[in-house]
Amino acid sequence: TVHMEAQAALLGAILRRAQKQEPDWAMTRLVWDETGEKVTLSLAGAPPQVQNSVWHVLIARIRILVSFNKCVYSYRLTLPALVVPSTSAAAIHYQLHHHPW
Question: 37, 54, 88, 96: most buried, per Cβ within 10 A?
């Protein structure tokens, strides 16, 4: 999407600047939430319990703070929503740290 492409360009610009000039410091903050979304599919002749399902969805945002020459820049990134197989700590950890965004 256009939004994800803009974020990728922003990250590229930060990286190029950091390669030319070492930042004074950098910091990231990750916030996330997992929620269940009810999905209903109309299936002729199927009982209601077959037509309804809850999918676990993970959303996350990253904030990056970078200082160059004592000037602080703040960037906010939104990661795409992901379906997680369960609400277990292992499943959420994998999606946050190992999923190929």
Answer: 96
